[in-house]
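Review form for a predicted model. The reviewer records the input and the model, then writes brief findings.
Reviewer: anonymous (R2)
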Amino acid sequence: MFKDAVIRLVFSALGVIFGVCGFFVLFVGYGNHDVGFWSILSGALAAVCFHLHWVKAKDSLDTWHTTLTLRNINVVGFLGAVAGITAAICNLANF
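Model under review:
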């Protein structure tokens, strides 16, 4: 694997770990359900990112995904980004 692929895999794995750990600490430990939900959502999107980097680094992207599934993953990522930006703006407006 290339050096940049390893770096991307490490960062996306850290995103999965922090997302899942943040969920348990915030949702279960502190009872902050809103932040816990966003944390597990972030971890899930990081897991999708990890998967895509993994199959791309192994040169097996075409065996795992078709053009339609990649388009659907693109839409899910875009909607996640829009939802995150919208939540951040709403959170800043509530101060």
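Findings: Residues 3-93 form one domain.
Further findings: The mean pLDDT is 93.
Recommendation: see findings above.
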